Amino acid sequence: MRGKGILGATAAALAIISAPALAGDLGTAGTMTYALVEGPLEPNEEVQVQTDCAAGANMTAVGFGADFGGVRPLSLFLHSASAAEATLSATASTTFSVYPMCTTASVKYVEKSRSVPATAAATIKAKCPVQRHVAGGGVDAYAKVIQNSYPYDSRDKDSKPDDGWKASAQGADEAEMTVVAACVKAMPSYRSKKVDLSPGAGISFPIKCKTQKHLSATGARMTGATGFGGLEGLRPLDGSDADTAPDDSGLVNMDNYPSNPDSEKLTATAVCVE
Ligand SMILES: [Ca+2]
Ligand SMILES: [Ca+2]
After folding, report:
1. Ligand nearest, relative to CA of residue 241
2. HSE of 203, CA atoms in CB hemisphere, 13 A
3. Ligand in nearest proximity to the CA of 213
4. Distance from the alpha carbon of residue 154 to the mean position of ligand 1, in angstroms
5. Nearest ligand, CA 246
6. CA of residue 189 to ligand 1 center, whole Å
7. How far is ligand 2, taken at its centre, from the CA of residue 240, in Å?
8. How far apart are alpha carbons 77 and 74 in whole angstroms?
9. What's the total number of domains in the chain?
10. pLDDT of the chain along its 274 residues, tens only?
11. How far, in Å, from the CA of 271 to the mean position of ligand 1?
């Protein structure tokens, strides 16, 4: 659990919002159900949104975004089968959004934790059990800032990133960092796109699920040392289909900081299920 340290360490105002009180239901598509919690956020403020799935449903991921950019994710975490938490810190006046994503499929969760020293970056992976494939995941970076959060491929026979969830974070403070993988029986469909990001460039683009498939998680990974990428959004998006559920694409928003001397590659992935 998140302690009080973060308040003292950052001197930020922390607001805790509990959903579903403030959640808007965005609808159901296939096995997936989506909701939205949103609100204003001022510079140096932090918000922690706690959300639940309906009874019997299981969380695959919690997405986030901001209308005018300027948010940094500290946690995008799945606490248990039905509860998720997103902690966002603001660097500008903005409107944040948090999207709990739940499935009626059975999910097994695998967690990996490690303490990461002050100023250090870390990458942690949580591997799915045999016969299971990753449909989503999350990370609690505690006092560090999340840069990458994505499904990964181990060196198994396929080349699909179905083997687990991986995340990287960096920041000044010491942190107990935890990554969680949400693993399902049926093989999801993984749709990836790789783009170049020159220093100082930012990009935002959607990756579409195939028709008849529904987004269960969005992943983003920028190459290079952790700390040069600014993850500004990782969220579900509605397409031009008849429903209002944001099941059609995963939207990734990432900056390559101007302080980075190198161009990097950003791999964005949409994980899509029945
Ligand atoms: Ca694989
Ligand atoms: Ca839709």
Report:
1. 2
2. 22
3. 2
4. 5
5. 2
6. 12
7. 7
8. 9
9. 1
10. 333 223 333 345 667 776 554 568 999 999 999 999 999 999 999 999 999 898 899 999 999 999 878 999 999 999 888 899 999 999 999 999 999 999 999 999 999 999 999 999 999 999 999 999 999 999 999 989 999 999 999 988 899 999 999 999 999 999 999 999 999 999 999 999 999 999 999 999 999 999 999 999 999 999 999 999 999 999 999 999 999 999 999 999 999 999 999 999 999 999 999 9
11. 13
Q: Give me the residue label for tokens 């096995």.
A: 31
Type of residue numbered 208: K
Distance from chain centroid for Cα 224: 19
Range of the domain at 130: 5-273
Q: Which ligand is nearest to the CA of 32?
A: 2
Q: How far is the CA of 151 from the centre of ligand 1 (A)?
A: 10
Q: What's 17's domain CATH number?
A: 2.60.120.690
